[in-house]
Amino acid sequence: METQQLVQPYDLSLHHAGRLKMYCEGGRDVTEDLVDHIAFGNEEFHVAKLGDVREENGEYQALVYWLGLDEDEASWEPVRSLYEDIPIVFRRWVHQHEDKEQVNKMAAELDKTLGRSL
What we know:
By secondary structure, the protein is of the alpha+beta class. The protein has four helices and five strands, in the order ββαβββααα.
């Protein structure tokens, strides 16, 4: 692994990273709420799951169920935004729903727009 000093002279050095371990210091009163705050923060909503897909005014949208919100608070979000924000979740959802014609059309259109395959 190559590292760089954060202060001058900003030297680069090579290190073997095979024995690195994650730092963990016990006894710090880490609560579940603190872990959730670190993982999710307070700034955004997080996707619980993706539902149906539709085409609205020439743009594909997916029904997004939000973590911590009721199902009736789900919203339709542009698939391109979802692909940019949660690419792994989005790709997994597309592959799990390849049997649905509308999802295949949406994926083909998104492939064309992005210029690459999902």
